Amino acid sequence: MINKIKMGMVGGGAGAFIGEIHRMAAALDSKIELVCGAFSSDPQTCLHSGQSLGLDASRCYASYQQMFATESTLSEDERMDFVTIVTPNHLHFPVAKLAIQSGFNVLSDKPATFNLAEALALKTLLDDSSCLYGLTHTYIGYPMVKEARQRIIDGQLGKIKKVVVEYSQGWLASSDDEASKQAMWRLDPKYAGISCCMADIGVHAANLAEYCCDDEISEMCADIAPTVTGRVLDDDGTVMLKFSSGARGVLLASQVAIGEENRLNLRVYGEKASLEWSQLEPNSLWLKFPDQSTQILRAGVGSLSPLTLANLRTPAGHPEGYIEAFANLYVNFAGQIEAKKANQPSPEYAEDMPGIHQAVRGMAFIENVVASSQSQQKWHSFTLQPMSQK
Amino acid sequence: MINKIKMGMVGGGAGAFIGEIHRMAAALDSKIELVCGAFSSDPQTCLHSGQSLGLDASRCYASYQQMFATESTLSEDERMDFVTIVTPNHLHFPVAKLAIQSGFNVLSDKPATFNLAEALALKTLLDDSSCLYGLTHTYIGYPMVKEARQRIIDGQLGKIKKVVVEYSQGWLASSDDEASKQAMWRLDPKYAGISCCMADIGVHAANLAEYCCDDEISEMCADIAPTVTGRVLDDDGTVMLKFSSGARGVLLASQVAIGEENRLNLRVYGEKASLEWSQLEPNSLWLKFPDQSTQILRAGVGSLSPLTLANLRTPAGHPEGYIEAFANLYVNFAGQIEAKKANQPSPEYAEDMPGIHQAVRGMAFIENVVASSQSQQKWHSFTLQPMSQK
Amino acid sequence: MINKIKMGMVGGGAGAFIGEIHRMAAALDSKIELVCGAFSSDPQTCLHSGQSLGLDASRCYASYQQMFATESTLSEDERMDFVTIVTPNHLHFPVAKLAIQSGFNVLSDKPATFNLAEALALKTLLDDSSCLYGLTHTYIGYPMVKEARQRIIDGQLGKIKKVVVEYSQGWLASSDDEASKQAMWRLDPKYAGISCCMADIGVHAANLAEYCCDDEISEMCADIAPTVTGRVLDDDGTVMLKFSSGARGVLLASQVAIGEENRLNLRVYGEKASLEWSQLEPNSLWLKFPDQSTQILRAGVGSLSPLTLANLRTPAGHPEGYIEAFANLYVNFAGQIEAKKANQPSPEYAEDMPGIHQAVRGMAFIENVVASSQSQQKWHSFTLQPMSQK
Amino acid sequence: MINKIKMGMVGGGAGAFIGEIHRMAAALDSKIELVCGAFSSDPQTCLHSGQSLGLDASRCYASYQQMFATESTLSEDERMDFVTIVTPNHLHFPVAKLAIQSGFNVLSDKPATFNLAEALALKTLLDDSSCLYGLTHTYIGYPMVKEARQRIIDGQLGKIKKVVVEYSQGWLASSDDEASKQAMWRLDPKYAGISCCMADIGVHAANLAEYCCDDEISEMCADIAPTVTGRVLDDDGTVMLKFSSGARGVLLASQVAIGEENRLNLRVYGEKASLEWSQLEPNSLWLKFPDQSTQILRAGVGSLSPLTLANLRTPAGHPEGYIEAFANLYVNFAGQIEAKKANQPSPEYAEDMPGIHQAVRGMAFIENVVASSQSQQKWHSFTLQPMSQK
């Protein structure tokens, strides 16, 4: 009997949207088993949530501290192989920190930490441990995103000239929208930190661009702002970009773009060809050429890269979506854990997974955008140095 | 601790595409647990498959007969609550029959049986038992398909005039395509019965039209044929339709439509409005009006029916796909089982699930299409009478 | 100074939609000049219309009979080179007949005649004259339609298996829609003949399919009907088709498809590839292949056939539309006249133009569809024999 | 007999793409008549071009100077009513200047002048004359662009928050593309001035945004650059925008975006609703709402503004394109001339036409973008002050 990878969960009690998504993503491929959890700071909610998920009461912990302490005492056959963190954002770091200190592999919801300083501290912790760390930058999990990356790496686009990436939503367009719990903490600096829109979704767009282009943002010129009276954090912004490779680009993000769902689009223009991908039709990838027909690559059709195929569950004509992309992150992280348990190197598909490097760059992106937007100087150099006053 | 619904599986050993899809669909929502299986007619393959799925060897059965016999002896806490049948098509009926005779609820892959006579026999068996029966007509599981049905039932389209439904694929376009195992049995009358294209996909289109329109095909005029030299079964066809309500329509199906993935589209034209849905962009539903802007209903956006929302896992902007639609069938069937175990009536969402009625109509559709196509008479009345010589 | 081709017009007085379209189409390329007209049966309207178009009163004729008589007396430098007929349908034939008898080339709005018997009579007249005859089957004028035809003729699709063609509109969906003048005569057998929907738009779909596939309908099985109480002529229908080449197909036409504008689509499935074109996005042509990326051919991009390019006015990125397609018919017909005047063979682009052959087949299509629909026999052989009682 | 508006043309000899487009646009509606021209600086080419257009040799002038001088001596019945300027860009101003000084109304291809100083000088000239001046910012001529403007002016979007406008092409992506005549002068500062991409297409995007939003750019932060080795002028750029109303935005322009045709798109996000329009599908306008179905407004369908309808030639379902949009500018300008000749105020539809105000703002946009891009300062205030050294 082949053992599944055993997962503990911190956060994600009854009613928590993202916790439910994580559980579906983990469950989809029957390779991961939820074995324990500290689902809520309220012990009753925790117990109730755990039991409704089929857990024994003994594995429903009143706190993550208790969970790590107790699980550490179990045999390897029984104790969780990794913890997935789906708490409110400000707790991501302390939970991850204690997990690593307790020797557990960590899969964390995004953002990795509250700020860049914490992300760097997390990196130091990880450097000193043997724990694995994964970050659920979901959109990286789409098969055709991987195909885009491979085509660019393979040189099919030639040298990249321009990158246009956008993530637009409309759900925070009016002050009425702030009533919801989701909205409230995202707009409150105490819980959200120094940015709302860029921290919540702009960072996904930046990550997508860097991942697909295998490149890094080196300079930026940002204009972010709150657009609704009474708000202190940005709900919209534009960032002009320069990349290490010399490519230029622009990133658009908005939470006040009425009528947009999760309009996450990427366009990459190279010297030889271009490509376009859109999250709302994730199974297509558009390839464009000079004076030649545009081609629509489709998941499951024709010749796709091994990495793409490794992240695809169905043949052509069966649309895969957000949950499958999310599940790819879980499967890939589980692949790393399996390899680690077997003392073997991770297979390529498993390595293709956001980790602490992306965590640090993500938090740095947010701080750099805010710094750039506050500056009267046009170009701001991307730095991994945390902002001073926080 | 809340118990999951316990599932046994017949068929679906390592390498079987559809078995894997069923397992993902069953696993997605963590409400169903695979507890046993007879995954293959080869005991070794069965054991290997079951163990790789985390099953104990004692629950990996060498045959479905053995599985039903042994599971029947287990306590209710332990034994499977239902069996899912994912064998080759010709075994669907004998497995379902023995399952029902053994007292097990059945969820069957499509088609329910080899022919209409068997489907009627299955219906008789079920009428005499207390077993639940579900049929995985996957496309019915899409949330926006349910929205389409609700809008039509609510009268938003007025009296229906015309229905255009199509399911086109290209994977059997040339004789080269027949090499694959999938292709071979679908084209062999011994395994496939009297039809290939209509039995495999035309029946999905018919089911989709009847479901959404809450109507039944009453007459038809069919033209089906093999288009590749050497084939005896149809790989393409058109069927003109009349419905009980008086609506007229047309059904197109093809497996030789090169370049089409699973182009399953439905258009319904009413006296007041029209709608359009496409499986390849399943999260949108187009509503059209006389001399007024077309509206795009989107999963998660605006006011949707309770049934739609009950089959939706994510808010707007997170594309859901084929596996989620499939999982809806599992969740809904599990809901029926839960209700039955609690001696309560099934909730509405759980009842919204293809069962023996659709199984009989599906097999009848196939036989009627073949009869109509062979006839020189224009209109053929839809009958539940099995064809004589079989 | 190069002389323009001189055009006379019968019908198309102030307020007539289609007359205005014809004038724009004729004017667009500055190769044709309107020199005279009999725009209305009312002499005042005729004079007023002609003068508002910049004509001298002496060339505004009170009747087409007078126009043909008088123009015949003018010198070749002065008299019209062809007459364009944009009257109500029942006059198309008598006007064309007299024009030919008077020695004038004729460009006629569709349908060519009231019925097939007239179309055959017209053919006989033309066979015995040296007059040129053109028919404005507009949709044939789109550049990417010509590209579709060329690709099929060149064998890029291989042997054609299946043709799906559709023309759906919604403007006659309810009896309220009948108030308009346009609607009234189309639904009145006295003016419209034996069919409304098939005669008005079904025939366009049939023509498009035959043109692109370079094939002819040989058998059909039709189901047409009025769907609104009180109507006697069809407003909707489906026709299953067999072609001379052995290809099979289906034609859908509707005037009660609420919300559809002029949804004229063509799909052709061959043994090697498939294509798709839609009038509502006329500058794209989709090419599909087995297990390879779909390609979007675009007007002005890449390698297109000489015939396509000859019918295209702008480079890539400048959408061309309905009027340009219509203008292509005028330019091509003018090319035939120029060649005739120069006693030279017409260039290829000019020959690519619907004429009396398409006129006869169009009228035959209508009569065959009606006959097939009335028959209880499934397959009806396409015949050029007019229906008996008319 | 109603007289047509008489047009003279400067430039546009045989082989000139844009001259041909202008002639088609002028001819389409039979309201404008070409009566004379100075089509080329080469007298033979001029004569040949004019005669092939049906002009008498006496109205084919060897130079625009001669044309203005001679036409001025003709009677009002005979002489041209306006001159349309389709020369290479650097001649637009001198020709327009002399035309105005000679008392002729001017319709000029874009850009109005070589630089802002000339545009201001042109404005002064016009202020002191009674001549009419129109500028062919083509994209403003699309009916659904006018609908967008009207909806915004009517307040249906509420206060505008964000504007995203883009014009991307790929035709200058590589140095190979420079061989063409079109490319060469656009990339040569001697002929093109201080900018290539922003001057050629960025200005269209800016004009579209200002027109639709009824707003003006007040500040900008630009990043433009040549992306191909050896070029000195920009072929790509991004400009962050602030508008007078307080709205923010971003403008993207590129001539190196391989595979893009003329991807001119506009999105406007307001407090109550949003809209989206794309030149490549110009007959649709997308309206988006908070938590409500997206609506697709279509040319000819439902309730559209009078201004939209005045610029539309066909009912629903007949795609109109680029030439029709261009023709709208001609018709509207002709409407101004008719009114002037009749000593009456122009009707509303005729006033809706880019003129000297847009000419000045367009040239200012170019100079401001270049100045902003050269500056290290983030925000640059839009100024009508010409750049010093030119």
Which fold name corresponds to the CATH topology of the largest domain in chain A?
Answer: Dihydrodipicolinate Reductase, domain 2
| Largest two-chain interface | A-B, 46 and 46 residues
The residue ranges of chain A in which pLDDT falls below 50 over 5 or more consecutive positions are none
Strand line-up in the sheet with most strands of chain A: 13-12-11-10-6-9-8-7-14
Secondary-structure element pattern of chain A, one letter each = EHEHHEHEHEHEHHHEEEEEEEHHHHE
Give the C-alpha Rg of chain A.
21 Å
* Relative helix content of chain A: 25-40%
| pLDDT averaged over residues of chain A | 95
Q: What is the correct CATH architecture of the largest domain in chain A?
A: 2-Layer Sandwich
SS field, number of helical segments of chain A: 13
Query: Multimeric state of these chains?
Result: homotetramer
Q: How many strands of chain A? A: 14
Q: Give the total of domains of chain A.
A: 2
Structure in words:
The structure is a homotetramer of 390-residue chains. With 390 residues, the first copy, chain A, is α/β, with parallel strands linked by helices. Chain A has two domains: 5-139 and 333-355, 3-Layer(aba) Sandwich (Rossmann fold); 143-314 and 361-373, 2-Layer Sandwich (Dihydrodipicolinate Reductase, domain 2). Chain A is built from 13 helices and 14 strands. In chain A, helix 1 (17-27) packs across helix 11 (322-341) and helix 4 packs parallel to helix 5. Chain A is globular, with a radius of gyration of 21 Å. The termini of chain A are far apart. The mean pLDDT of chain A is 95. The interface between A and B is large, with 46 and 46 residues. Strand 13 of chain A pairs antiparallel with strand 13 (292-298) of chain C, so a sheet runs across the interface.
